[in-house]
Amino acid sequence: MEKFKNLGKYLISFLLASGLLYYVYKGQNISSLLAELSQTNYLWILLSFLVAILAHVSRAIRWNMLLEPLGYKPSIFNTFNAVMLGYGANFIFPRAGEVARCGILYKSDDIPVDKSIGTVVAERIVDLITMMVFMAVTFLLEFKTLMGFVLKYNQNQTTSDSLFKTYFFYLILFMVVIGAGILYFFRNRILKMKFVKGLMEGILSIKDCKNIPLFIFHSVFIWFCYYLMMYFALKSLPSTSHLSPIISLSLLMISTMGMIIPVPGGIGAYHFLVTEGLVLYGVNKESGAAFAGISHSLQILEIFVLAGFSFFVSSYLISKAKNKKPTDNN
In this predicted model, what pLDDT tens digit does every residue of 186-207 receive, in sequence order? Predict the structure, then answer.
């Protein structure tokens, strides 16, 4: 029964992603789209790629800072591998990456999954707070543009467009309400589980972090790197290279919403929101769709290159550790 539930969940996720992709690229002139992509400046793409690696390394260092109060000290290399494999898993199965990276760390460093997942939840809470700060700054800087868009949006859309975006909004709201309801009605049963005790221990590890200023630095630095990734990616196409640094921040927040929606790797949702965001700033829909496609493809390429590297390295190290155990016992 559980398999059918998971299959249904992934099928809905896949259909949502496909529907959004179809909406973004329907009626697009393929030759014009390819001509737009042919003007890509790959130096900016390379810079975006390098900054992404810095963000992942910073995330690995920050994760280690949460694991240390629990008595575990994995190498940054092992933690980085686990982070990248988690990202890779997220592109295939939405929200599976958190569990996957904890499983990898269990195999490489024997860290209990319940505790490491707790530290990942703590990370997500900190990321949410940091993101909200960035969003608040963005909203203050872009208040007039964003509010003007909200107030006039429906007047500038066709009936079919308005219906599509309305249904999309209510679908996301429905998913949030259902999730909150499940957590509320089963909260007592959940809190009694042994797994949750380890989870809470991991979450609370943040208060025992030895270097809070450094932890805060990495939390901000990760998002600063995400900002630079968006800024450099925008510079890579002539149609978006003129956009200001503040607009880059706004588009980062918009794109983040696309990555949060539970579809594989943000596919469809990212393209839809980024394209609409660029249209908001005067970029035509065709160019906006081209940018959304190339920036998301860059993320996929970067994740799978690094995840592939981490997979082979982790497999080798875990296999080597297993082969040494009988010798150590003799």
Answer: 445 444 444 455 556 656 667 7
